Amino acid sequence: MSSPRDDHEAAAADIRAVEDANTAFYEAVERGDIDALSALWLPGEDLTVSCVHPGWPVLSGRGEVLRSYALIMANTEYIQFFLTDVQVAMTGDTALVTCTENILSGGPAEEGNALGPLVGQLVVASNVFRHTPDGWKLWSHHGSPVLAESGEDDDEEETPS
């Protein structure tokens, strides 16, 4: 029988491993490394993986999901993720990571070799991982854009009653 301390240490190790897998996912996208990215998703089609990129329909199946990332990587000159508000919840062999993706991206400039204009975007994301004999693998990614406030209410003058 394991002690509460052993159980706590095992749970903490699992959380660290999930955090590492989550970080590896974003780093693979930043590097444009489709092989590393592919290795992070659940293998086979026994458990259908899914992905929702901001503004896209649901993508189902490993092939469709990985093709979407290959397309994004091929058409994005630069992308960097600064993750904030990272939370990990676990139950059994499934883990849920929620976070805010503070994304900085840019494409090629119209002329010359310089990088085009950089664009910032906020996306809230949920990443679901499953534990396998090969470690924690991504089962589902869902990203939703954070809509910026217009600030129109702040600009209107208040009328005295």
In short:
This protein has 161 residues and is an alpha+beta fold.
Tell me, briefly, the overall form. Answer: globular
Residue fraction in strands: 35-45%
Please give the count of helices.
4
- The helix/strand class is alpha+beta
> Averaged pLDDT, please?
88
Q: Mind describing the biggest β-sheet?
A: 6 strands, mixed
Distance between the termini: 71 Å
The stretches of 5 or more residues where confidence is low (pLDDT under 50) are: 154-161
Helix coverage percent of residues?
Answer: 25-40%
Number of strands: 6
Describe the protein's architecture and organization:
Residues 150-161 have a biased composition (Acidic residues). This is Nuclear transport factor 2 family protein. Residues 142-161 are annotated as: Disordered. InterPro entries: NTF2-like_dom_sf (IPR032710), SnoaL-like (IPR037401). With 161 residues, the protein is of the alpha+beta class. 32% of the residues lie in helices and 39% in strands. It has 4 helices and 6 strands; from the N terminus they run H-H-E-E-H-E-E-E-E-H. The protein has a 6-stranded mixed β-sheet. The chain starts with a helix and ends in a 6-residue tail after the last helix. The model is unreliable at 154-161 (pLDDT under 50).
Element layout with pairings:
Layout: H1 4-31, H2 34-40, E1 50-52, E2 59-60, H3 62-74, E3 78-91, E4 94-108, E5 115-132, E6 135-145, H4 152-155
Parallel strand pairs: 1-6
Antiparallel strand pairs: 1-2, 3-4, 4-5, 5-6
Biased composition (Acidic residues): 150-161
Organism: Streptomyces salyersiae
Domain SnoaL-like: 18-146
